[in-house]
Design a protein that fits this description.
The complex is a heterodimer of chains A (278) and B (598).
Chain A (H helix, E strand, L loop, with lengths): L3 H6 L2 H21 L33 H36 L4 H15 L2 H11 L6 H26 L2 H8 L4 H9 L4 H24 L10 H11 L6 H28 L1 H5 L1
Helix pairs in contact in A: 2-3, 2-11, 3-4, 3-6, 3-9, 3-11, 4-6, 5-6, 6-9, 7-8, 9-10, 9-11, 10-11
Chain B lengths: L2 H17 L9 E2 L1 E6 L14 H10 L4 E3 L8 E3 L7 E2 L5 E5 L22 H10 L20 H6 L11 E5 L2 E5 L7 H4 L10 H7 L13 E6 L3 E6 L17 H4 L17 E6 L3 H9 L5 E3 L5 H4 E3 L4 E2 L1 H4 L2 E7 L2 E7 L12 H17 L2 H8 L5 E2 L24 H10 L10 E6 L2 H17 L6 E6 L2 H9 L5 E7 L6 H4 L19 H10 L6 H16 L3 E6 L1 E7 L2 E2 L16 E2 L5 E2 L1
Parallel strand pairs in B: 2-11, 18-19, 18-20
Antiparallel strand pairs in B: 1-25, 3-4, 5-6, 6-8, 7-8, 9-10, 10-11, 12-22, 13-14, 15-22, 16-20, 16-21, 17-21, 23-24
Helix pairs in contact in B: 11-13, 17-18
The chains are: A mainly alpha (278), B alpha+beta (598).
């Protein structure tokens, strides 16, 4: 049987997505390590300078280099994407597994009720409320996303755990007297990894998109730069005929999202056991 | 004849009657002026007319005792609801004002029979008292606080409207007497404000908080509709008949001759039947609406300055726009500044004299590192007026000889000041720079941080403190929670006292002195100046106070913006955004060809 990686490698679109993400991830790593994009705040040129050998993407209103800001923004995107994905997936997986395992118990009811309440609140309204409540806190946006993004993961994992609970290996584990905690975390959850992985890529994309939208609205990144802030800046520049910010931020965002979508699709196919059997 | 045929004939007849043109004489014509503003009024209640946008509408829906002459510059006071300028007692403490007879509020169900009753002196008394009544949520009390005899006591004793205030009396139905606690030459200016507009008591009592969206005034217009994006006003047909007189309004043929104002002579304002005022906060949307001819007037967004100007200094309109638009460049009556919060020990006053001295040096270094030339170039298209201190070119006290070094960037001196006073990157304080959430405010912050970085201030030690709205921001700095306060001041009236009080010690937070500056010499000079009218003596005092502010390095100031206005050539007007504000709308007229048929 082919491994997931082998199946992924054989999918051209999936690999294209992988390489796109790898390029952005590399840029983010270099930014974090202080080797790239460190001059994003520095005024290094004149107002709205065109593309040149000094400023590959031109400059913005203040004379800041748009390339530096675009690169730094990829680190912002990954920082938000990774933190939100890890936390919300962890939360969703654990709560989903508990709800599924203890199906129809008070715990299941409680988790489903909380999930229902959170799902019923319009997301951007909720994010704005959190941002205003935690005035100036740099983690307000992350918190809003984590609080709301775990619900989908939890719903999917709950269903999968309910299904797995009927399987023989779980019956066997129960028969030998293993406690539920061990069965859930050692035997059941590892069998949901394919779902978790695909769901994580979807959350990653959603987090990046949401960060851009929230930053555009002024509810996101406070001290730094992101593609959302660049797009917000561009809203005042495009009318005056300056497209540097708009083009750089929207192309970067588009490429990264396409990369993730290609990879997620391919990953889903590669992990589809029915497909691997055929 | 079959029934179907009968029905068809009947329908055809009905339709033909409905669609036939009526008698041409019956067609009504109306003049509609379409204005655009970059913000919306939060309330139309005069007691809450704090913003430029609220005031703009309020003075058209209500009456004030005085206003400014439409065309005279510098601004001159003009009786509005008053019959003449006030009679002032020799000691300057008692003012007697007569109001016009026969002025009526608009028709409204609050009045007997729904017909607007006559406006009386007591209405004015009541309207001022409202600012001192807790239920009004009024915002204009500061104009008269500690100034009018007995008013503060009236408030302290429970704000009973039926209880008389000794310094605010109606001698009869048409005579008002105001007694001051001390001379206050600016009082008449305060009576031009939207805050001083006259409301009928019965409307306040009936509508309560709803008065903010249901105005009942005696101004030249009445409200037809209003929502968050537009307001429609119609001419108040009962507005008093006072023919327009060019000379009386301060017309200057040399500078104002090209607009067509002569045609207005002897006409009775308001000249248009309907005002449609759009509230469009987005520059791009407002500009697009103007370009498409959907609105008649615009304050040109800075992003369009390149497009509309062929020359910056002085601003000249490009030929392509010259053919279709009237143009005016006006210096703003006010200024933009960044205050240091003197109550913050990291940057302001410090109990340790040594640290106090070093803080002073740090503030002075930051002022030297600030690049006004760049600020003007980037955000004001290089046509703003940079000046040292708080006396902008729009006030007579402006000093062309003032210390220009205060507004010139000198990075070497700034770095030296830091060095000499033992400030290094590692011991410089972390400072929060506050601003309300907007793209431009963020860019202004980033530019400020860059200026400081050039001097050696670490980027991570100047941090943004972002607030959802300007109101939140204002609340925060009024409570002393912001170290670096970037803000702008638009003068309430054309008297420099309005700027000088911004740094008067007793006005410290939560008052208007957001810098929390408290210098006994400055306070003494301010107190000495308050009794003085505009004069050489007062000018000298103000300039001395201005110099004190600069010596103490209290604020990075300032720049007065140059605003560009464009309006359709078929609209006859001289727009104004400062002291005259919304008062000019009653004098807007359209060429006859612009009349629309209804």
């Amino acid at each position: 049987m082919e491994s997931v990686w082998q199946r992924l490698r054989s999918d051209g679109y999936g690999m294209l997505g992988f390489y796109i993400i790898a390029v952005f991830a590399l840029a983010a790593l270099l930014v974090w390590s202080g080797l790239l994009g460190q001059s994003w705040a520095v005024v290094s040129g004149g107002r709205w300078e065109s593309i040149s050998s000094t400023h590959w993407f031109g400059t913005n209103l203040l004379g800041q280099d748009i390339l530096q800001r675009t690169l730094f923004s990829s680190a912002t995107a990954f920082e938000v994407g990774l933190s939100v994905t890890i936390l919300s997936t962890l939360l969703g997986t654990v709560l989903g597994a508990l709800a599924g395992w203890f199906r129809s118990s008070w715990l299941d009811e409680l988790i489903l009720w909380v999930k229902g309440v959170l799902d019923s609140i319009p997301f951007y309204l909720f994010a704005a409320a959190i941002a205003f409540a935690l005035q100036g806190n740099r983690w307000a946006m992350h918190l809003a996303m984590v609080i709301t993004f775990w619900t989908t993961t939890a719903r999917i994992i709950r269903g999968e755990v309910i299904r797995l609970k009927q399987r023989e290996f779980v019956e066997a584990a129960r028969a030998i007297g293993l406690p539920p905690r061990t069965i859930i975390f050692r035997h059941v959850l590892p069998n949901t990894s394919h779902i978790v992985l695909v769901q994580a890529t979807i959350v990653f994309v959603a987090a990046i998109k949401t960060e851009v939208i929230l930053s555009f609205l002024g509810l996101g990144i406070q001290n730094g730069v992101s593609w959302g802030l660049m797009l917000a800046e561009s809203s005042q520049e495009v009318l005056a005929g300056h497209f540097g910010n708009f083009a750089a931020a929207s192309i970067a965002l588009f490429l990264l999202l396409v990369g993730f979508n290609l990879l997620a699709d391919s990953l889903q196919d590669a992990m589809d056991k029915r497909r691997s059997v055929s | 004849m079959p029934k179907t045929t009968q029905c068809v004939i009947l329908l055809t007849l009905l339709l033909s009657v409905a669609c036939s043109p009526g008698d041409p004489d019956e067609v009504t014509t109306s003049k509609v002026y379409r204005h655009a503003m970059d913000g919306a009024p939060a309330s139309l209640d005069p007691a809450q007319a704090a913003s430029l946008y609220s005031k703009f509408l309020v003075v058209n829906l209500y009456d004030t005792l005085y206003r400014y002459k439409y065309l005279a510059r510098p601004y001159q006071l003009q009786p509005n609801l008053a019959t003449a300028m006030p009679e002032i007692s020799d000691d300057g403490l008692r003012l007697t004002i007569e109001i016009k007879k026969g002025v009526h509020f608009i028709d409204d169900p609050v009045f007997a029979g729904g017909l607007g009753r006559e406006l009386k002196a007591m209405d004015f008394i009541y309207s001022i008292k409202r600012h001192f009544h807790p239920s009004s949520r009024a915002q204009g009390a500061w104009l008269w606080q500690d100034r009018i005899l007995g008013l503060d006591l009236w408030k302290a004793e429970g704000s009973d409207y039926d209880q008389e205030v000794s310094g605010l009396r109606a001698l009869d139905n048409y005579t008002i007497e105001i007694t001051l606690t001390r001379p206050f030459p600016q009082l008449i200016h305060t009576l031009t404000q939207g805050f001083a507009a006259v409301v009928p008591r019965e409307a306040v009592e009936k509508y309560g908080q709803q008065l903010s969206s249901h105005p009942v005034g005696s101004g030249p217009f009445r409200l037809i509709s209003r929502n968050s994006t537009r307001a429609v006003l119609a001419r108040n047909t009962n507005f008093r008949q006072e023919p327009f007189d060019l000379k009386d309004e301060g017309y200057d043929q040399k500078t104002q001759g090209e607009v067509g104002l002569e045609d207005l002579q002897n006409k009775v304002p308001p000249f248009v039947d309907r005002l449609e005022i759009e509230f469009v906060t987005e520059d791009a949307a407002r500009w697009n609406a103007f370009s498409a001819g959907e609105i008649d007037f615009i304050k040109v967004p800075v992003s369009q300055f390149d497009n509309v100007l062929s020359q910056r200094n002085p601003p000249i309109l490009s030929s392509q726009h010259e053919d279709i638009y009237q143009f005016e460049a006006a210096s703003e009556a006010g200024f933009i500044y960044t205050n240091f919060n003197m109550a913050d020990q990291r940057i302001g006053y410090h109990p340790d004299p040594e640290r106090n001295r070093r803080n002073h040096a740090l503030r002075c270094a930051m002022i030297k590192a600030f690049d006004w030339k760049k600020r003007n170039e980037i955000f004001f298209y290089d046509i703003g007026h940079v000046f040292p201190g708080v006396l902008p070119p729009s006030v007579p006290e402006f000093d062309p000889e003032a210390d220009a070094g205060y507004i010139q960037r000198d990075l070497e001196s700034a770095r030296q000041l830091l060095r000499v006073n033992d400030w290094q990157a590692d011991n410089l304080p972390v400072l929060e720079y506050g601003f309300p959430n907007s793209v431009t405010e963020r860019q202004i912050f980033e530019q400020f941080r860059n200026f400081m970085m050039d001097m050696g201030y670490p980027a991570d030690k100047i941090r943004p403190l972002v607030f959802a709205t300007y109101g939140d921001y204002q609340r925060a700095y009024s409570q002393g929670k912001v170290a670096l306060i970037n803000s702008s001041w638009t003068m309430d009236y054309p008297d420099a006292e309005n700027n000088m009080q911004l740094y008067y010690g007793p006005n410290a937070a939560p008052g208007s002195n957001s810098a929390n500056y408290n210098n006994s010499e400055y306070n003494r000079l301010y107190e000495a100046s308050t009794a003085l009218n505009e004069s050489t003596e007062r000018t000298q005092i103000y300039r001395q106070m201005n110099q004190l502010l600069m010596n103490d390095c209290v604020s990075i100031t300032g720049i007065a913006r140059t605003l560009l206005f464009l309006w359709d050539k078929k609209v006859i007007m001289k727009p104004d955004r400062s002291f005259l504000g919304g008062y000019f709308l009653r004098f807007v007229d359209l060429e006859d060809s612009l009349q629309t048929h209804e």
